[in-house]
Amino acid sequence: MSADERWIARSEALTRLGVKAQTLYAYVSRGRIAARPDPTDPRRSLYAVSDVARMCGEGEEAEASEVRRPVVGAAARGEADIQSSVSLIVDGRLFYRGLDTVQMSEAVTAEAAARTLWDAREADPFAELKPRIDPIVGGATQRRVLAVLGRRAIEDRSLRAHDAASLKREAASLLSEVVDSVSGPGPRLYLHQRLARGFKTAERDSHLIRRALVLGAECGLDEAVLAARAAAGGGAPLAGAVMAGVTTLSGRALTEMDEVTAYVGEARRDPDGAARRWIGLRGGVPGFGAAAEFGRVDPRVPALLEPADLPADLRAVLSEGEAAGGQAASFALALALTARRLDLGPTGAGDLLVLGRLIGLLAHAVDQATDGSPIRARLRYVGPEPGSH
């Protein structure tokens, strides 16, 4: 079987599985079926035929037909089977432990969203938290986040030394300490209000930070989640497991965010021209194209941007980009526009991404330590035969 034959189009995957598109997207979100962009049309996705065959009950036959042949790309990564009760995307909607995320973002605090994701709704792990007397301050936001995580990874005990309740209290302590490092000294307000103080954002606009944190906390399985859960499964301290996820974000997610931020800066001056230039150079506009599991529109985007009251130049970035590329905005673009609206600086969108995802990565580490099944992965050796040199 050639590398191209290992991937099939959506229509064929749906026919073989006998499911609707939303179910296929859910399988991808949960990591049960691998997907990749179609090299001939990046707006479309291809799906791993071996995963589709396995879901159809043809796994053994499919595997037998691939007799120890070297593979490349996503198919070479092996397969990780992870059970999670943290979040689910179905019918184009994102749910945190069964609760609609968009609805939550209308009113709940980041603390409340964290308690939902951590399955800590009965007892408040944020109660009676006190600030650390020697907080890490100074430097860029993401540097402070990593510094706090690194210090706590050295200080704290293994996940295996905790029961569920103490683990959730440690998650709250860790999140609060990170926020303190960003916000600096001041009143013990809600997390988003403390961050607004650190970002020098007007109190009347702090609700946008709250919405960004709640909406961006979690979005299913990706490399960062896998890294955090693998470290948690190995018994790392909670901060160490989360640090594995945050540093993984520095790869693709933050690189893409930097590109989207740069595009927003360019497009503010000439939105139509910038979109057409990017299409000519790259075949698409940065920040446009919802994740496949959502369908065409990521519901988190309007939930964040509609209350933002964007100025005319940022509205033009959104409308002209959608018109030029024919795709709806991604959540990365929503974060970039929000960061620009709040004047958070060139790294503001990435800062919001990391701080929001920190809540979800904590959820996955806690979930893996308390309720997660062992992560089963297969590594296929495709190197030289022993003694061949």
UniProtKB/TrEMBL annotation:
* Pathway connected to this protein: Carbohydrate metabolism; tricarboxylic acid cycle; isocitrate from oxaloacetate: step 1/2
Q: Pfam families recorded for this chain?
A: Citrate_synt
State which Enzyme Commission number(s) the record gives.
Answer: 2.3.3.16
- SUPFAM superfamilies, from UniProt? Citrate synthase (SSF48256)
Give the main EC class.
transferase
Give the Gene3D superfamilies listed for this entry. Answer: Citrate Synthase, domain 1 (1.10.580.10), Cytochrome P450-Terp, domain 2 (1.10.230.10)
Q: What is this protein called?
A: citrate synthase (unknown stereospecificity)
Q: Which organism is it from?
A: Brevundimonas intermedia
The major lineage groups are: Bacteria, Pseudomonadati, Pseudomonadota, Alphaproteobacteria, Caulobacterales
